[in-house]
(2Fe-2S) ferredoxin
Amino acid sequence: MPGIEEAGGIAVVLVARGAVAAAPRAEMESLATLAARMPGISHATYAFTEQGVPSLREVVVALRDRPFAEIRIVPLLLPMEPSFRAWLGRTLARWQTGWDREGPAVRIGPGPISSVHLEGLVADLIDRAGHEPLFDPESHPPVTGSVVSAAQRRVLVCRGGPCSEAGSAVLWGHLRNEQERLGLRTAGRGMMSATTSCLGPCSLAPVVQVWPEGTVYGGLDETGIDRIVAEHLLRDAPVETLAYTADGRKKRLRTP
C-alpha cells in the first residue's frame, strides 16, 4: 500500500461502500497514492465497508500492529447518511472489545460534503462533462438474457433502520466476501444473498434470515456469520445458539 511507515505517524484509510471489479479498486488505489503524498501522512490505504477487499476490519486490524499514533478513517461517500459515522463508531467499538491491547487512536472523518473545496470539485466535473462525447444509445445494446440461479438457499441481510444502526452493512460485506472466497453460490445446496428492508424483529438487530427454512438469526457479528456459513449453509445444520424461534412470541436479544 502507498506510504512510508513512520513510528508515531498518521495512517489514513479512505473508505468506500464496496467494489468487486478491478477498475474501482484501481481508483481507490490511486486516491490512496495521492493521500500518501500529502504532508504529515505516513501511510495511506483504502477499504470497503461492504463487499470488496480489503475490508475495513482487516485494514484496521493490520494497522493496529504498526507503530502509528493515529488512524484517520475518511469516508468518501456522497450522499452519506447521518447514521453512517454512528454505526461505524459502534462497529469499531465492538471490534475493540475483542482486542487484547490498545492500538493507535482512531478518528472518523465527516465525509466529502463538509469540504470547503467541494464547490471547486463539482465545477471541475461539470466542465469535464461538457467535453465528453454525446451519449449514443446505439453504443449501449440491451442485455439479451440472464441466468436464473439454481441455488436452493437465500440469505437475507436486514438493512432496516435498527439493523443498519447496529452495523449490518459490515456484516453484509463480510458475508459477500465469504460468498466469493468460498464459492458459496455453488457449494452445498447453493446460496444467493440479498439485502432487504425490515425483517421484523428489530430488537434482535442485526438480523439475518436463511431460507428455505426461514431461520432467523439475531445479534450477529462476523464470527456469527462465519458459523452460519460453516454449519447452516455448508452442512445443513442451523446454528441453534444464534437462532430465534418463529413462534409468534416476543424475543429478547441474548447476552453474549
